[in-house]
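Duplicate of #3305? Posting structure anyway:
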């Protein structure tokens, strides 16, 4: 049946009901369907979810021209030609095209082509295995309901903030014009990526961080190198500051951000002082689960909470074990690729349970256990330079009781890196488990390192012994030769 035609009452019982058609929901429905189960997706906004329209895709479309220009500036023969301002209209138009002009026809066609039904509307649980859409249509699930409703930006409780109508990640990825002065609050991934993009597009950017550095979940050198480069690009970075109050006197007028800190070193909008005036204010301080109006109370759970799941992504404490929480909504790893991974795991687990096949929960790397969520999550921050990591940082490895050795390497010392860009700056680290002689984590910072990350992910998830990695020969002269340097340093 066509995706858009799922309206007949006779079809209201499905094997699997998926709430939310983001990357996670789409993949889960696909896996369930491929295993021979009937599946329907309920979506209240656009098929494709946050990632396609207000997150990964538009943000990377904004950032690619920034890093391409930056790299070209360091290549002899191109550097003069690349020493130009970005054509912001062209970049924004490129972004609009990648966000499919905020229309989901293409993704609806895909659902259609694979045979997954779509119901548009706001879904709510109404007791075990039942879902009500827009307060009317009732769907029932023979085997499972999978909540894949994702997350939304959080606005901290700062006086005047909500009334000032700040940007969230949605505005920062879809804005139609470049603000003259932009203040960004939050030094995590969204704050760093969006400060990078809007500064390169011509905005005067101040980045406010309450901790002492950027990208606090990565190895500290990642934040240091990215901060250094943002400062060179002209971003005013202020660490150790809290926003005390926000005022916007008139809609569309300037916004005043009042800080709880000593006067700053300077920046756009009238500093030094403890007030910054800007045209827009982006709040990038983390996410909350989209579970507040989902009927969780009808199945004994707390509305607005992250869903607590086991390693097959089944929600804990629900009688009958029919409810799954997959993707951002379970707070295991808020990344598209991890949501899709969990969807593959949960889809297989739902199909196995539907067929009465035993689930091997003790098999850490089996088909029904999302072990990579805790041991091997890869992430690329598409800043300039890129920061890429997988697995545990040294601090996290020590916290979890591993006996480790840390090996660092200057990426500039690798021939492939110096050929890649003049004056290449970057660093790599591997964290080795001394008891098992396998890699627990790796981090690379530098131009082009995002594409290096999967080699590390294979090593970490595969628990490849160091002595075998010695035989994985990196091609000369690529940046991957850093592996050789790291292993040489480890082996001595
Ligand atoms: C600015 C930004 C950039 C990012 N960049 C990257 C990146 O480069 N790489 C990466 O891996 N991750 C990135 N992320 C994270 C990534 O966007 C999320 O991890 C991913 O979107 C999660 O997918 P999901 O399917 O779980 O949820 P979502 O993509 O949020 O999809 C959930 C869907 O559920 C729907 N929904 C919600 N409630 C209901 C309801 N009651 N009824 C029906 N439908 C409902 C929503 O409308 C939405 O379509 C970024 C995030 C942000 C904010
Ligand atoms: N390239 C990518 O993979 C990518 C890009 C963007 C977002 N994402 C994902 O999206 C999620 C959300 O990103 P995010 O940057 O919003 O969240 P985050 O949790 O990564 O960072 C938020 C930062 O804001 C700080 N903060 C919290 N409250 C604050 C306050 N009141 N004042 C100042 N700072 C405050 C936190 O200490 C934290 O450092 C992340 O989990 C991230 O993995 C991924």
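Output from current build:
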């Amino acid at each position: 049946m066509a995706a858009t035609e799922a309206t007949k009452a006779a079809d209201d019982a499905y094997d699997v009901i998926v709430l939310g058609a983001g990357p996670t929901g789409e993949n889960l429905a696909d896996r369930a369907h491929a295993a021979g189960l009937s599946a329907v997706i309920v979506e209240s906004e656009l098929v494709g979810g946050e990632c396609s329209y207000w997150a990964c895709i538009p943000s990377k479309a904004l950032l690619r021209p920034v890093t391409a220009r930056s790299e070209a500036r360091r290549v002899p023969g191109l550097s003069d030609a690349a020493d130009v301002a970005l054509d912001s209209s062209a970049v924004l138009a490129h972004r609009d095209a990648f966000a499919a002009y905020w229309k989901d026809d293409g993704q609806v066609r895909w659902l259609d082509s694979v045979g997954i039904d779509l119901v548009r509307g706001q879904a709510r649980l109404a007791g075990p295995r039942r879902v009500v859409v827009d307060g009317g249509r009732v769907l029932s699930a023979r085997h499972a309901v999978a909540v894949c409703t994702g997350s939304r930006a959080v606005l901290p409780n700062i006086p005047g903030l909500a009334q000032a109508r700040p940007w969230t990640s949605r505005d920062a990825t879809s804005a139609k014009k470049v603000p003259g002065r932009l203040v960004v609050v939050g030094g995590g991934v969204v704050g760093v990526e969006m400060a990078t993009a809007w500064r390169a597009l011509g905005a005067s950017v101040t980045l406010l961080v309450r901790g002492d550095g950027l990208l606090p979940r990565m190895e500290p050198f990642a934040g240091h190198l990215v901060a250094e480069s943002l400062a060179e690009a002209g971003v005013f970075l202020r660490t150790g500051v809290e926003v005390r109050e926000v005022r916007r006197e008139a809609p569309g007028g300037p916004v005043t951000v009042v800080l709880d800190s000593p006067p700053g070193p300077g920046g756009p909008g009238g500093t030094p002082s403890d007030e910054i005036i800007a045209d827009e204010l982006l709040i990038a301080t983390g996410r909350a689960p989209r579970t507040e109006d989902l009927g969780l109370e009808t199945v004994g759970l707390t509305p607005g909470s992250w869903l607590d799941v086991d390693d097959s992504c089944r929600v804990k404490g629900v009688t009958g074990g029919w409810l799954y929480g997959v993707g951002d909504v379970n707070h295991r790893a808020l990344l598209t690729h991890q949501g899709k991974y969990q969807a593959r795991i949960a889809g297989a687990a739902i199909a196995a349970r539907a067929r009465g096949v035993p689930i091997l929960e003790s098999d850490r790397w089996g088909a029904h256990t999302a072990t990579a969520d805790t041991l091997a999550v890869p992430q690329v921050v598409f800043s300039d330079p890129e920061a890429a990591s997988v697995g545990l940082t040294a601090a996290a490895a020590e916290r979890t009781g591993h006996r480790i050795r840390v090996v660092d390497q200057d990426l500039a010392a690798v021939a492939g890196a110096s050929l890649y860009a003049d004056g290449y700056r970057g660093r790599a680290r591997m964290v080795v488990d001394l008891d098992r002689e396998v890699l627990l984590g790796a981090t690379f910072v530098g131009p082009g390192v995002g594409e290096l990350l999967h080699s590390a992910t294979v090593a970490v998830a595969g628990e490849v012994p160091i002595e075998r990695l010695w035989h994985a020969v990196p091609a000369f002269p690529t940046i991957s030769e850093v592996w050789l340097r790291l292993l040489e340093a480890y082996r001595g």
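Confirmed duplicate; merging threads. Residues 156, 185-191, 193, 210-211, 216, 243, 284-287, 334-335, 379-382 surround nicotinamide-adenine-dinucleotide (ligand 2) (CB under 6 Å). The CA atoms of residues 213 and 224 lie 7 Å apart.
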